[in-house]
């Protein structure tokens, strides 16, 4: 399986690359073109007490070259230039990437200085089923309008500034229909491994299967929230979309640490690395998860904490993978093939999230493609590890059963031994095996002394074969030439006597070295379940042994029987029955 891994990954990458080529290709005549959007001309930031008039009068505070966006500032400013060309429909909507904020003011400025302002809270924004964006209506834009200034109070991320646009329709945004279909395809690819994980966990309850299922579920939520697909299915607010996307990514990333500690084969990760991974997981869940909430009082630092917080986490994950690979982990090969592309895509998203640079919306497809690759390849690794663990477990169980059988079986005859009988006697009696017959071969010592132990062993094997012929009986070798048989069903004395006679016939026929008939004696005790007598093997065995002694004392080649009843058992001694010739 592992030898085919590079080929499988290459095929997946080629397919994803082909889809990405379609996603990132220039828009068709029916798709929104670049000219349908108005992009920001300049950016700035300030304290909350700075007014629009002050910003308009200070040309040096505006950054019109790009770069240097600061999400930690209390107020961010964006300025759009409006051309006012005749025949061109004016923009009517402001849209940008979903993020938390305190308020957004949109001010249209006409050529004569007239201003029209509309102010909105974050719950006034409308998440659109057109990508990870929300829209706000613009104040009236006329042919005289020359600029639109956006004042964002309390922004929690740089992309809310760098990806801001003006448009005339929600169908004409940075996200094309092809991109949304691609995202829906990614979502479907994430669902399949989740279903496999659930199926695997039902059969083999390993923690790493459950953790990978949680990772897949978290990534499904991330695509729904951060990819902007959730508004297709439900009405959600901008805060819910912003928090849901960040928190689901943090939760999935935290689960990845614990998954790696459980998924890698035992002994392939040093104890220190195991502890570092677990600490990284808790750091991601608690610290980065806290930053995901984007609370109002954490606005100045939560964006930096969220993205910078992943830097040591990625470093620890990479180190763990390298160590496991060096130590020969097969599971780590799957993880490396799955996570390294994801680390690269996540690092690119990290730089954009910090405002280091701006990029087209289709850059997000790299991260979603890496997610699909990760879940598929790791699911293959989970399946491989699942198969290996199940094979090892089945082998161990088979060996345990074999060892159990060996410990409960007489190696010479294959019958149960005394130990097995001690464990099962009460259950067998309760199941209807109410008659116990103790068989002992007459003058067996003479066989060993005269013909040797090899012939004696042959005799014992033949006896074992005879005793196992009754389908309603359980035979046990008690030791030496003594055997015990527990009978169920009726007419037990006749069946036991027939078995006793058959021993002599089969031994005479199959053990050619013997020149005389080998007989046996039997002590038989019937203990009805309705007798009210406590089922105690030792007491019943001693009673059968006493009856066997009576049969021996009566001249051997006899069956002595008794039924334990109240107040006293009755005894009978059956006469000698000479076995017929074979």
Description of the structure:
It contains 17 helices and 16 strands. The chain has 3 domains: 244 residues, Up-down Bundle (Rhopdopsin 7-helix transmembrane proteins); 132 residues, Immunoglobulin-like (Sandwich); 158 residues, Alpha-Beta Plaits, CATH 3.30.70.270. The N terminus and C terminus are likely disordered. The strands form 3 sheets. It has a 7-stranded mixed beta sheet with strand order 10-12-13-11-14-15-16, sandwiched between helices. A 5-stranded antiparallel beta sheet has the order 1-2-8-4-5, with no helix packed on it. The longest helix is centred in the middle third of the chain and has 45 residues. With 582 residues, the protein is of the alpha+beta class. Pfam families: 7TMR-DISM_7TM (PF07695), GGDEF (PF00990). Keywords: Membrane, Signal, Transmembrane, Transmembrane helix. Its EC number is 2.7.7.65. It is an enzyme of class 2 (transferase). It catalyses: 2 GTP = 3',3'-c-di-GMP + 2 diphosphate.
Integer-rounded radius of gyration: 42 Å
Sheet with the most strands, sense and barrel status: 7 strands, mixed
The level 1 CATH classification of the largest domain is Mainly Alpha
Q: What ranges have pLDDT less than 50 throughout 5 or more consecutive residues?
A: 1-35, 566-570, 576-582
Q: What is the CATH architecture term of the largest domain?
A: Up-down Bundle
Count of DSSP helices? 17
**Broad structural category:** alpha+beta
What is CATH's topology name of the largest domain? Answer: Rhopdopsin 7-helix transmembrane proteins
Strand content: 15-25%
Compute the number of structural domains. 3
